Amino acid sequence: MKLLAIIAAMVFAGCAHHASASPESNPTMPSENAIKFTAGSEEVVDAFEGSFTVPENRADPQSRTLTLRYVRFPATGKKTGSPIVYLAGGPGGSGIQTAKGRRFSLFLAMREFGDVIAFDQRGTGSSNDMPKCRSSQKLEATDRISDAEYARRHQDALRECLTFWKDNGIDVHGYNTTENVSDLDSLRQHLGAKKLTLWGISYGSHFSLAAIRQIGDRIEKVVIASAEGLDQTIKLPARTDDYFGRVQAAIDTQPKTKAAWPDIKSTMRRVHAKLENAPIWIKVMQKNGASQDYLWQRRDMQQTASSTISDPVPLSLLLNLYDSLDKGDAEMLSAVAPFVVDSTEEISFRPMSVLMDIASGTGTERRALIAEQAKASLLATYLNQPVELEDVDRSLVLNDDFRNVPVSDIPLLLLSGTLDGRTYIESQREAVAGLLAVQAVTVHNVGHNLFMASPEVTATIQDFMRGGSVDGRQINVDLPDLLTAGFDLLK
Protein backbone atom coordinates (compact mmCIF):
# COMPACT_ATOMS: atom_id res chain seq x y z
CA MET A 1 0.00 0.00 0.00
CA LYS A 2 1.08 3.54 -0.74
CA LEU A 3 1.22 4.63 2.90
CA LEU A 4 4.18 2.27 3.31
CA ALA A 5 6.11 4.54 0.96
CA ILE A 6 5.41 7.47 3.28
CA ILE A 7 6.59 5.46 6.27
CA ALA A 8 9.72 4.45 4.35
CA ALA A 9 10.39 8.10 3.60
CA MET A 10 10.34 8.78 7.34
CA VAL A 11 12.97 6.12 7.85
CA PHE A 12 15.22 7.42 5.07
CA ALA A 13 15.03 11.14 5.88
CA GLY A 14 18.11 13.44 6.68
CA CYS A 15 21.28 12.95 8.74
CA ALA A 16 24.18 14.91 10.19
CA HIS A 17 27.64 15.65 8.78
CA HIS A 18 30.41 13.12 9.27
CA ALA A 19 34.04 12.96 8.25
CA SER A 20 35.05 10.26 5.79
CA ALA A 21 37.90 7.81 5.59
CA SER A 22 40.56 8.25 2.95
CA PRO A 23 40.33 5.58 0.22
CA GLU A 24 44.09 5.74 -0.25
CA SER A 25 44.54 4.04 3.14
CA ASN A 26 41.99 1.34 2.30
CA PRO A 27 43.01 -0.60 -0.81
CA THR A 28 40.27 -1.94 -3.03
CA MET A 29 39.12 -5.53 -2.97
CA PRO A 30 38.66 -7.53 -6.18
CA SER A 31 36.00 -6.02 -8.47
CA GLU A 32 35.84 -2.77 -6.47
CA ASN A 33 35.97 0.86 -7.55
CA ALA A 34 36.55 3.95 -5.42
CA ILE A 35 33.46 6.19 -5.44
CA LYS A 36 32.01 9.29 -3.83
CA PHE A 37 28.91 8.00 -2.04
CA THR A 38 26.14 10.60 -1.86
CA ALA A 39 23.50 10.23 0.81
CA GLY A 40 19.96 11.54 0.58
CA SER A 41 21.07 14.48 2.72
CA GLU A 42 23.54 15.34 -0.09
CA GLU A 43 26.49 14.52 2.15
CA VAL A 44 29.36 12.85 0.34
CA VAL A 45 31.72 10.24 1.74
CA ASP A 46 34.54 8.18 0.22
CA ALA A 47 33.61 4.55 -0.32
CA PHE A 48 34.05 1.60 -2.64
CA GLU A 49 31.48 -0.18 -4.77
CA GLY A 50 32.03 -3.83 -5.53
CA SER A 51 30.41 -6.94 -6.91
CA PHE A 52 30.79 -10.71 -6.95
CA THR A 53 28.97 -13.54 -8.66
CA VAL A 54 27.02 -16.49 -7.29
CA PRO A 55 24.87 -19.27 -8.73
CA GLU A 56 21.16 -18.53 -8.71
CA ASN A 57 20.45 -22.06 -7.47
CA ARG A 58 23.40 -23.92 -5.98
CA ALA A 59 21.51 -27.22 -6.30
CA ASP A 60 21.54 -26.88 -10.10
CA PRO A 61 24.93 -27.37 -11.81
CA GLN A 62 23.56 -25.50 -14.83
CA SER A 63 22.29 -22.56 -12.81
CA ARG A 64 22.56 -19.10 -14.26
CA THR A 65 24.86 -16.62 -12.52
CA LEU A 66 23.79 -13.61 -10.46
CA THR A 67 25.88 -10.49 -9.89
CA LEU A 68 25.48 -9.18 -6.35
CA ARG A 69 26.57 -5.64 -5.52
CA TYR A 70 27.52 -3.73 -2.40
CA VAL A 71 29.07 -0.50 -1.15
CA ARG A 72 31.93 -0.69 1.34
CA PHE A 73 32.58 2.13 3.80
CA PRO A 74 36.18 1.74 5.01
CA ALA A 75 36.92 1.34 8.70
CA THR A 76 38.08 4.40 10.63
CA GLY A 77 38.90 2.94 14.05
CA LYS A 78 42.40 2.17 15.30
CA LYS A 79 41.42 -1.36 16.26
CA THR A 80 38.93 -2.89 13.87
CA GLY A 81 37.33 -6.28 13.60
CA SER A 82 35.58 -8.27 10.91
CA PRO A 83 33.61 -6.58 8.12
CA ILE A 84 30.14 -5.48 9.28
CA VAL A 85 27.45 -6.45 6.77
CA TYR A 86 24.14 -4.60 6.85
CA LEU A 87 21.19 -6.88 6.01
CA ALA A 88 18.10 -4.94 4.98
CA GLY A 89 14.55 -5.83 5.89
CA GLY A 90 11.59 -6.67 3.75
CA PRO A 91 12.42 -9.12 2.31
CA GLY A 92 13.17 -6.94 -0.67
CA GLY A 93 14.89 -3.95 0.91
CA SER A 94 18.12 -2.54 -0.50
CA GLY A 95 21.08 -2.16 1.82
CA ILE A 96 22.62 0.48 -0.46
CA GLN A 97 19.45 2.57 -0.51
CA THR A 98 19.16 2.25 3.26
CA ALA A 99 22.67 3.68 3.60
CA LYS A 100 21.53 6.73 1.65
CA GLY A 101 18.69 7.42 4.05
CA ARG A 102 18.22 8.37 7.65
CA ARG A 103 20.49 5.57 8.91
CA PHE A 104 23.49 7.00 7.03
CA SER A 105 24.96 8.42 10.23
CA LEU A 106 24.76 4.99 11.86
CA PHE A 107 26.53 3.37 8.91
CA LEU A 108 29.37 5.85 9.37
CA ALA A 109 29.44 5.40 13.15
CA MET A 110 29.80 1.64 12.73
CA ARG A 111 33.08 2.17 10.80
CA GLU A 112 34.80 2.48 14.17
CA PHE A 113 34.59 -1.31 14.41
CA GLY A 114 35.41 -2.43 10.87
CA ASP A 115 34.56 -1.96 7.21
CA VAL A 116 30.80 -1.49 6.85
CA ILE A 117 29.14 -3.20 3.90
CA ALA A 118 25.79 -1.98 2.53
CA PHE A 119 24.76 -5.19 0.78
CA ASP A 120 22.07 -5.55 -1.86
CA GLN A 121 20.82 -9.12 -1.43
CA ARG A 122 19.89 -11.22 -4.44
CA GLY A 123 16.81 -9.84 -6.11
CA THR A 124 17.05 -6.43 -4.43
CA GLY A 125 18.25 -2.97 -5.45
CA SER A 126 21.28 -3.06 -7.73
CA SER A 127 21.42 -6.88 -7.40
CA ASN A 128 18.03 -7.33 -9.04
CA ASP A 129 17.61 -8.37 -12.67
CA MET A 130 14.10 -9.82 -12.34
CA PRO A 131 10.88 -8.27 -13.63
CA LYS A 132 7.87 -7.60 -11.45
CA CYS A 133 4.92 -9.77 -12.46
CA ARG A 134 1.50 -8.27 -13.04
CA SER A 135 -1.04 -11.08 -13.31
CA SER A 136 -4.42 -11.21 -15.04
CA GLN A 137 -6.11 -11.74 -11.67
CA LYS A 138 -7.92 -8.65 -10.46
CA LEU A 139 -9.29 -7.16 -7.26
CA GLU A 140 -11.80 -4.77 -8.74
CA ALA A 141 -12.32 -1.57 -6.79
CA THR A 142 -16.08 -2.12 -6.75
CA ASP A 143 -16.05 -5.89 -6.18
CA ARG A 144 -17.09 -7.31 -2.83
CA ILE A 145 -15.38 -10.66 -2.34
CA SER A 146 -14.92 -13.02 0.58
CA ASP A 147 -11.65 -13.62 2.37
CA ALA A 148 -11.51 -17.10 0.85
CA GLU A 149 -11.96 -15.68 -2.65
CA TYR A 150 -9.32 -13.04 -1.94
CA ALA A 151 -6.83 -15.77 -1.02
CA ARG A 152 -7.80 -17.89 -4.06
CA ARG A 153 -7.21 -15.03 -6.48
CA HIS A 154 -3.77 -14.43 -4.97
CA GLN A 155 -2.98 -18.12 -5.40
CA ASP A 156 -4.06 -18.01 -9.05
CA ALA A 157 -2.01 -14.85 -9.56
CA LEU A 158 1.06 -16.50 -8.09
CA ARG A 159 0.64 -19.52 -10.38
CA GLU A 160 0.69 -17.16 -13.34
CA CYS A 161 3.73 -15.34 -12.01
CA LEU A 162 5.71 -18.50 -11.36
CA THR A 163 5.19 -19.42 -14.99
CA PHE A 164 6.05 -15.88 -16.09
CA TRP A 165 9.33 -15.88 -14.16
CA LYS A 166 10.29 -19.37 -15.35
CA ASP A 167 9.61 -18.28 -18.95
CA ASN A 168 12.01 -15.38 -18.32
CA GLY A 169 14.80 -17.77 -17.30
CA ILE A 170 14.46 -17.28 -13.54
CA ASP A 171 14.89 -20.27 -11.23
CA VAL A 172 12.25 -19.60 -8.59
CA HIS A 173 13.84 -22.22 -6.32
CA GLY A 174 16.86 -19.95 -5.93
CA TYR A 175 15.07 -17.37 -3.79
CA ASN A 176 15.15 -18.49 -0.19
CA THR A 177 17.07 -17.54 2.91
CA THR A 178 19.44 -20.52 2.78
CA GLU A 179 20.66 -19.31 -0.63
CA ASN A 180 20.92 -15.81 0.83
CA VAL A 181 23.15 -17.16 3.61
CA SER A 182 25.36 -18.91 1.07
CA ASP A 183 25.64 -15.57 -0.76
CA LEU A 184 26.76 -14.01 2.51
CA ASP A 185 29.51 -16.60 2.84
CA SER A 186 30.55 -15.90 -0.76
CA LEU A 187 30.76 -12.22 0.16
CA ARG A 188 32.96 -13.11 3.11
CA GLN A 189 35.32 -15.02 0.84
CA HIS A 190 35.28 -12.19 -1.69
CA LEU A 191 36.32 -9.76 1.04
CA GLY A 192 39.07 -12.11 2.22
CA ALA A 193 37.65 -12.20 5.75
CA LYS A 194 37.70 -15.09 8.21
CA LYS A 195 34.48 -13.93 9.82
CA LEU A 196 31.70 -11.39 9.39
CA THR A 197 29.75 -9.28 11.85
CA LEU A 198 26.08 -9.06 10.93
CA TRP A 199 23.83 -6.05 11.45
CA GLY A 200 20.19 -6.29 10.43
CA ILE A 201 16.60 -5.37 11.07
CA SER A 202 13.28 -7.19 10.49
CA TYR A 203 13.88 -9.68 7.64
CA GLY A 204 17.56 -8.80 8.07
CA SER A 205 17.32 -10.33 11.55
CA HIS A 206 15.61 -13.43 10.10
CA PHE A 207 18.51 -13.65 7.64
CA SER A 208 21.02 -13.22 10.51
CA LEU A 209 19.44 -15.97 12.60
CA ALA A 210 19.54 -18.33 9.61
CA ALA A 211 23.20 -17.46 9.14
CA ILE A 212 23.93 -18.34 12.76
CA ARG A 213 22.51 -21.81 12.12
CA GLN A 214 24.12 -22.27 8.72
CA ILE A 215 27.56 -20.62 8.95
CA GLY A 216 27.88 -19.82 12.64
CA ASP A 217 31.60 -20.60 12.73
CA ARG A 218 32.16 -17.70 10.31
CA ILE A 219 30.26 -15.07 12.31
CA GLU A 220 31.91 -12.91 14.96
CA LYS A 221 29.04 -10.82 16.35
CA VAL A 222 25.43 -9.97 15.51
CA VAL A 223 23.39 -6.80 16.05
CA ILE A 224 19.69 -7.11 15.24
CA ALA A 225 16.57 -5.06 15.83
CA SER A 226 12.87 -5.87 15.47
CA ALA A 227 13.68 -9.54 15.21
CA GLU A 228 11.71 -11.98 13.10
CA GLY A 229 12.38 -15.56 14.13
CA LEU A 230 12.89 -18.41 11.71
CA ASP A 231 9.34 -19.66 12.36
CA GLN A 232 7.78 -16.18 12.52
CA THR A 233 7.36 -15.13 8.90
CA ILE A 234 3.61 -15.41 9.47
CA LYS A 235 2.78 -13.63 12.73
CA LEU A 236 0.46 -14.97 15.41
CA PRO A 237 -2.84 -13.00 15.29
CA ALA A 238 -3.22 -13.18 19.07
CA ARG A 239 0.09 -11.36 19.44
CA THR A 240 -1.38 -8.55 17.34
CA ASP A 241 -4.22 -8.25 19.83
CA ASP A 242 -1.70 -8.16 22.69
CA TYR A 243 0.10 -5.36 20.86
CA PHE A 244 -3.08 -3.27 20.81
CA GLY A 245 -3.24 -3.80 24.56
CA ARG A 246 0.18 -2.13 24.83
CA VAL A 247 -1.05 0.63 22.54
CA GLN A 248 -3.97 1.24 24.91
CA ALA A 249 -1.56 1.41 27.84
CA ALA A 250 0.43 4.04 25.93
CA ILE A 251 -2.77 5.96 25.11
CA ASP A 252 -3.70 5.94 28.79
CA THR A 253 -0.52 7.91 29.63
CA GLN A 254 -1.88 10.88 27.65
CA PRO A 255 -5.04 12.26 29.34
CA LYS A 256 -6.61 13.86 26.26
CA THR A 257 -5.92 10.81 24.13
CA LYS A 258 -7.27 8.51 26.83
CA ALA A 259 -10.48 10.54 27.01
CA ALA A 260 -10.88 10.32 23.23
CA TRP A 261 -10.00 6.64 22.91
CA PRO A 262 -10.87 4.79 26.13
CA ASP A 263 -11.07 1.35 24.44
CA ILE A 264 -9.47 1.11 21.00
CA LYS A 265 -10.04 -2.64 20.65
CA SER A 266 -13.78 -2.18 21.02
CA THR A 267 -13.69 0.71 18.55
CA MET A 268 -11.86 -1.40 16.00
CA ARG A 269 -14.28 -4.30 16.37
CA ARG A 270 -17.27 -2.01 15.94
CA VAL A 271 -15.81 -0.50 12.76
CA HIS A 272 -14.99 -3.93 11.34
CA ALA A 273 -18.53 -5.13 12.05
CA LYS A 274 -20.06 -2.05 10.42
CA LEU A 275 -17.91 -2.46 7.31
CA GLU A 276 -18.70 -6.16 7.10
CA ASN A 277 -22.40 -5.37 7.12
CA ALA A 278 -22.27 -2.22 5.01
CA PRO A 279 -19.06 -1.35 3.13
CA ILE A 280 -18.59 2.35 2.35
CA TRP A 281 -18.58 3.79 -1.17
CA ILE A 282 -15.91 6.46 -1.55
CA LYS A 283 -14.24 8.41 -4.32
CA VAL A 284 -10.46 7.98 -4.54
CA MET A 285 -8.44 10.63 -6.34
CA GLN A 286 -5.81 9.19 -8.68
CA LYS A 287 -2.52 10.70 -9.79
CA ASN A 288 -4.00 11.84 -13.09
CA GLY A 289 -6.64 13.86 -11.25
CA ALA A 290 -9.52 11.51 -12.05
CA SER A 291 -11.63 9.98 -9.30
CA GLN A 292 -12.26 6.28 -8.88
CA ASP A 293 -15.23 4.64 -7.22
CA TYR A 294 -14.06 2.33 -4.46
CA LEU A 295 -15.93 0.00 -2.12
CA TRP A 296 -14.16 0.23 1.26
CA GLN A 297 -14.60 -3.10 3.02
CA ARG A 298 -13.69 -4.64 6.34
CA ARG A 299 -10.66 -6.27 4.74
CA ASP A 300 -9.45 -2.87 3.45
CA MET A 301 -9.56 -1.58 7.00
CA GLN A 302 -7.64 -4.57 8.37
CA GLN A 303 -5.02 -4.27 5.64
CA THR A 304 -4.63 -0.55 6.23
CA ALA A 305 -4.18 -1.25 9.93
CA SER A 306 -1.58 -3.90 9.16
CA SER A 307 0.44 -1.46 7.05
CA THR A 308 0.37 1.38 9.59
CA ILE A 309 1.03 -0.19 12.99
CA SER A 310 4.79 -0.49 12.57
CA ASP A 311 5.52 2.78 14.40
CA PRO A 312 3.68 5.29 16.63
CA VAL A 313 3.27 8.11 14.07
CA PRO A 314 1.41 6.11 11.38
CA LEU A 315 -0.41 4.34 14.22
CA SER A 316 -1.73 7.74 15.32
CA LEU A 317 -3.24 8.29 11.87
CA LEU A 318 -4.82 4.84 11.93
CA LEU A 319 -6.43 5.34 15.33
CA ASN A 320 -7.91 8.65 14.21
CA LEU A 321 -9.33 6.91 11.14
CA TYR A 322 -10.98 4.22 13.26
CA ASP A 323 -12.40 6.87 15.58
CA SER A 324 -13.91 8.87 12.74
CA LEU A 325 -15.49 5.81 11.11
CA ASP A 326 -16.86 4.69 14.46
CA LYS A 327 -18.63 8.06 14.67
CA GLY A 328 -20.07 7.65 11.18
CA ASP A 329 -17.78 10.23 9.57
CA ALA A 330 -16.10 9.06 6.34
CA GLU A 331 -14.42 12.40 5.52
CA MET A 332 -11.06 11.31 6.92
CA LEU A 333 -11.29 8.04 5.00
CA SER A 334 -11.56 10.03 1.77
CA ALA A 335 -8.35 11.85 2.73
CA VAL A 336 -6.45 8.70 3.70
CA ALA A 337 -7.66 6.37 0.94
CA PRO A 338 -5.50 7.84 -1.88
CA PHE A 339 -2.44 6.89 0.14
CA VAL A 340 -3.48 3.29 0.72
CA VAL A 341 -5.56 2.34 -2.32
CA ASP A 342 -3.70 1.02 -5.33
CA SER A 343 -5.47 2.19 -8.48
CA THR A 344 -4.02 -0.81 -10.33
CA GLU A 345 -6.44 -3.67 -9.86
CA GLU A 346 -4.26 -6.51 -11.17
CA ILE A 347 -2.56 -8.59 -8.47
CA SER A 348 1.21 -8.25 -8.83
CA PHE A 349 4.28 -9.67 -7.13
CA ARG A 350 7.95 -8.77 -6.85
CA PRO A 351 9.79 -12.09 -7.09
CA MET A 352 12.35 -11.79 -4.30
CA SER A 353 9.85 -10.53 -1.73
CA VAL A 354 7.15 -13.11 -2.29
CA LEU A 355 9.44 -16.09 -2.87
CA MET A 356 11.60 -15.47 0.21
CA ASP A 357 8.57 -15.34 2.48
CA ILE A 358 7.03 -18.44 0.91
CA ALA A 359 10.31 -20.31 1.30
CA SER A 360 10.65 -19.47 5.00
CA GLY A 361 7.18 -20.89 5.39
CA THR A 362 5.05 -21.93 8.32
CA GLY A 363 5.20 -25.20 10.24
CA THR A 364 2.06 -27.34 10.32
CA GLU A 365 1.31 -26.77 14.02
CA ARG A 366 1.92 -23.03 13.83
CA ARG A 367 -0.26 -22.71 10.76
CA ALA A 368 -3.13 -24.43 12.54
CA LEU A 369 -2.66 -22.11 15.51
CA ILE A 370 -2.66 -19.06 13.23
CA ALA A 371 -5.89 -20.20 11.56
CA GLU A 372 -7.58 -20.72 14.92
CA GLN A 373 -6.44 -17.37 16.35
CA ALA A 374 -7.40 -15.49 13.17
CA LYS A 375 -11.09 -16.29 13.68
CA ALA A 376 -11.39 -13.84 16.56
CA SER A 377 -8.39 -11.54 16.26
CA LEU A 378 -8.56 -7.89 15.24
CA LEU A 379 -6.54 -8.08 12.02
CA ALA A 380 -6.92 -11.81 11.21
CA THR A 381 -3.90 -12.76 9.05
CA TYR A 382 -3.63 -9.50 7.11
CA LEU A 383 -0.36 -8.55 8.77
CA ASN A 384 1.20 -11.01 6.31
CA GLN A 385 0.92 -11.95 2.68
CA PRO A 386 -1.70 -14.72 2.30
CA VAL A 387 -0.38 -17.84 4.01
CA GLU A 388 -2.22 -19.83 1.34
CA LEU A 389 0.49 -18.86 -1.16
CA GLU A 390 2.65 -21.58 0.38
CA ASP A 391 0.23 -24.15 -1.06
CA VAL A 392 0.68 -23.09 -4.69
CA ASP A 393 4.00 -24.94 -4.98
CA ARG A 394 5.12 -26.72 -1.82
CA SER A 395 8.53 -27.41 -3.37
CA LEU A 396 9.35 -23.73 -2.79
CA VAL A 397 8.96 -24.09 0.99
CA LEU A 398 12.05 -24.96 3.01
CA ASN A 399 11.82 -28.01 5.25
CA ASP A 400 10.85 -27.77 8.91
CA ASP A 401 14.46 -27.93 10.08
CA PHE A 402 15.01 -24.43 8.71
CA ARG A 403 12.48 -23.02 11.18
CA ASN A 404 14.14 -24.44 14.33
CA VAL A 405 15.40 -21.87 16.83
CA PRO A 406 19.19 -21.46 16.38
CA VAL A 407 21.54 -22.53 19.17
CA SER A 408 24.85 -20.70 19.48
CA ASP A 409 27.18 -18.78 21.79
CA ILE A 410 27.84 -16.00 19.26
CA PRO A 411 27.50 -12.61 21.00
CA LEU A 412 24.23 -11.04 19.87
CA LEU A 413 22.57 -7.72 20.66
CA LEU A 414 18.78 -7.61 20.32
CA LEU A 415 17.02 -4.24 20.28
CA SER A 416 13.22 -4.32 20.66
CA GLY A 417 10.63 -1.53 20.59
CA THR A 418 7.66 -1.75 22.93
CA LEU A 419 5.28 -0.35 20.27
CA ASP A 420 6.51 -2.46 17.38
CA GLY A 421 3.39 -3.60 15.55
CA ARG A 422 5.24 -5.79 13.04
CA THR A 423 7.49 -7.98 15.17
CA TYR A 424 6.23 -8.28 18.69
CA ILE A 425 8.48 -8.04 21.69
CA GLU A 426 7.42 -11.44 23.12
CA SER A 427 8.07 -13.12 19.77
CA GLN A 428 11.47 -11.45 19.47
CA ARG A 429 12.56 -12.91 22.79
CA GLU A 430 11.40 -16.35 21.65
CA ALA A 431 13.32 -16.00 18.38
CA VAL A 432 16.64 -15.83 20.23
CA ALA A 433 15.79 -18.22 23.08
CA GLY A 434 18.44 -20.73 21.98
CA LEU A 435 21.28 -18.21 21.93
CA LEU A 436 23.55 -18.28 24.95
CA ALA A 437 25.18 -14.85 24.63
CA VAL A 438 22.19 -12.60 23.97
CA GLN A 439 22.09 -9.07 25.33
CA ALA A 440 18.52 -7.77 25.10
CA VAL A 441 17.73 -4.05 25.17
CA THR A 442 14.24 -2.56 25.31
CA VAL A 443 13.45 0.76 23.64
CA HIS A 444 10.24 2.20 25.08
CA ASN A 445 7.58 4.02 23.05
CA VAL A 446 9.12 3.25 19.67
CA GLY A 447 8.18 0.78 16.99
CA HIS A 448 9.70 -1.33 14.25
CA ASN A 449 12.09 1.24 12.75
CA LEU A 450 13.99 1.94 15.93
CA PHE A 451 17.64 2.43 14.92
CA MET A 452 17.35 6.22 14.70
CA ALA A 453 14.77 6.64 17.48
CA SER A 454 17.34 7.97 19.96
CA PRO A 455 21.09 8.67 20.16
CA GLU A 456 21.07 6.14 22.99
CA VAL A 457 20.39 3.38 20.47
CA THR A 458 23.60 4.20 18.61
CA ALA A 459 25.49 4.48 21.90
CA THR A 460 24.17 1.08 22.99
CA ILE A 461 25.29 -0.56 19.77
CA GLN A 462 28.72 1.04 20.18
CA ASP A 463 28.99 -0.18 23.78
CA PHE A 464 28.13 -3.71 22.66
CA MET A 465 30.60 -3.62 19.78
CA ARG A 466 33.33 -2.49 22.17
CA GLY A 467 32.69 -5.55 24.32
CA GLY A 468 30.63 -3.91 27.04
CA SER A 469 27.60 -5.28 28.83
CA VAL A 470 24.27 -3.71 27.84
CA ASP A 471 21.93 -6.58 28.69
CA GLY A 472 18.71 -5.35 30.27
CA ARG A 473 19.30 -1.73 29.32
CA GLN A 474 16.11 0.34 29.05
CA ILE A 475 16.03 3.25 26.60
CA ASN A 476 13.17 5.68 27.10
CA VAL A 477 11.92 7.75 24.16
CA ASP A 478 9.20 10.37 24.43
CA LEU A 479 5.88 9.13 23.08
CA PRO A 480 4.47 11.40 20.36
CA ASP A 481 1.01 12.86 20.88
CA LEU A 482 -1.02 9.96 19.50
CA LEU A 483 -4.05 12.21 19.08
CA THR A 484 -2.32 14.45 16.52
CA ALA A 485 1.04 13.07 15.34
CA GLY A 486 -0.28 11.05 12.40
CA PHE A 487 -1.82 13.99 10.55
CA ASP A 488 1.65 15.12 9.45
CA LEU A 489 1.70 12.11 7.09
CA LEU A 490 -1.14 13.61 5.05
CA LYS A 491 0.60 16.95 4.45
Describe what this molecule looks like in 3D.
By secondary structure, this protein is an alpha/beta fold. The protein has a domain at 2-129 and 174-233 and 400-476: 3-Layer(aba) Sandwich (Rossmann fold). Helix content is 37%, strand content 18%. It has 16 helices and 14 strands. It has helices at 2-11, 95-100, 104-109, 147-167, 177-191, 203-215, 237-251, 255-260, 264-277, 298-308, 312-326, 331-340, 351-360, 364-374, 425-431, 455-465; strands at residues 32-38, 44-55, 65-73, 84-87, 116-119, 133-138, 196-201, 219-225, 280-285, 291-296, 346-349, 412-417, 438-444, 474-476. The strands form 3 sheets. A 10-stranded mixed β-sheet has the order 1-2-3-5-4-7-8-12-13-14, sandwiched between helices. Helix 16 links the parallel strand 13 (438-444) and strand 14. The radius of gyration is 22 Å and the shape is globular.
**Poorly predicted runs:** 4-25
Category by helix and strand content: alpha/beta
Quaternary: single chain
The spatial strand order of the largest sheet comes to 1-2-3-5-4-7-8-12-13-14
CATH superfamily of the domain at 2-129 and 174-233 and 400-476: Alpha/Beta hydrolase fold, catalytic domain
Q: Determine Rg (CA atoms, Å).
A: 22 Å
What is the tally of beta strands? 14
For this structure, what is the CATH class of the domain at 2-129 and 174-233 and 400-476? Alpha Beta
In percent, how much strand structure appears in the residues?
Answer: 15-25%
Main beta-sheet strand count, sense and barrel state: 10 strands, mixed
Question: Can you give the helix content as a percent range?
Answer: 25-40%
CATH topology of the domain at 2-129 and 174-233 and 400-476: Rossmann fold
Separation of termini?
18 Å
Shape: globular
- Mean pLDDT, nearest integer? 93
CATH architecture of the domain at 2-129 and 174-233 and 400-476: 3-Layer(aba) Sandwich
Order of helices and strands: HEEEEHHEEHHEHEHHHEEHHHEHHEHEHE
Q: Count every helix, treating DSSP H or I runs of 4 or more residues as helices.
A: 16
